[in-house]
Amino acid sequence: MKDINVPAGYKSTEVGVIPEDWEVNRLGEKSTKIGSGITPTGGEKVYKKQGRPFIRSQNIGWGHLSLDDIAFIDDEIHNTFKATEIKKLDVFLNITGASIGRSAVADYRVENGNVNQHVCIIRTNQKELNSFFLNHCLLSDKGQKQIDSFQAGGNREGLNFGQIKSLKIPFPTLPEQKAIATALSDIDNLLGVLDRLIAKKQNLKQSAMQELLTGKKRLPGFREGKGYKQTEVGLIPKDWEIATLGEIGKFKNGINKNKESFGFGFPFVNLLDVFGKIKISDSLTLGLINSTKIERNEYNLKKGDVIFVRSSVKPEGVGLTSVAVENLENAVYSGFLIRFRDESNFDLEYKVHCFYEEEFRKRLIDNSTVSANTNINQDALKKLKLPLPPLPEQKAIATILSDIDTEIAALKKRRDKTHNIKQAMMQELLTGKTRLVSTGSR
Fold this sequence. Notes:
Largest sheet: 5 strands, mixed
CATH architecture of the largest domain: Alpha-Beta Complex
CATH superfamily of the largest domain: DNA methylase specificity domains
Shape: elongated
CATH class of the largest domain: Alpha Beta
Strand content: 15-25%
CATH topology of the largest domain: Adenine-n6-DNA-methyltransferase TaqI, Chain A, domain 2
Structural class: alpha+beta
Radius of gyration: 28 Å
Number of domains: 3
């Protein structure tokens, strides 16, 4: 008897409800090869700067190849394990470690190369299973759930070849597979374009920061006849000043409370609330802490305050800053943070950017200490020197950099929206809810 919850023209299967003219098969039934490679004796010591591409798990992204740090091996090593030689349209699947489940399709760039033991090659019967269709199936929610189901206790310990062969795949006709793969690949291409635009804008901002925040490049109206001078922080414009942070403001460590004080009371700005954010405001969804009125007066955050991260597992994380762009009413901040409140003519938007300039970051990290984590304290921060342009130039520089940030944010928002569209399309197309070809017998 047909399930009344299954629409006409569809059937219930192990992979969910699919069209009646689709099949469900195990991956091994439609593949001519499923196997991984090996790492050559000597490991990284035998890698070359050119030669045969050698694919490792870090080269497999979520649906794409990431070849920035690809390794190479010579023909002599390649010839010792030719059984793992890559062919165009092979599907790569990561089978160990934190990246289990990531997959991509081999193209001309990696053809005739090899893979290591952490990457499985799935070579499909192209007359029955399209490689790009399979790649999208593996990355779909249902595909990832099957992969996760093989991991004992959710530890993602590793996939074996038997498990990969047993993966259940919904099978439309080959023309419909190709139509689905083309539609999803088109949106992948758009995501790739957006990613490249974001990276280009981010590189543009880094270059602009390096030039504008050091005075190497002056904006129109600020450069006429001024010249440069040599200082402790390098060559800067003659009309700029050098000041230590201790000279232009005061620092204060955040509040420390026992665990019983958390979860109720007043807003609390913690490390994770500011880490990776260049601006903070009262629009943040903050945790709560039981703070007194005296504590809220002492550890408050006002518009223009800069928060430094005191400690980080990695050196590049220590001393990162967020700027309060409005008063955070009744909020106190964590002891893992240091507040900097300036007492000088220091533009708010300029503060958002100036502490991320490459040379300043280098000086800050050089003055940090390393134990279990990398740490910075008030005394080290007070001694850091900062080149300061006149206030009008600060505002002009900040406007340029903030405009680039706005463009990057708009691109990221568009990318997120496109990604969500792709997820919805995968759900529709890979289950047959939406058909791209006329239906009929196989």
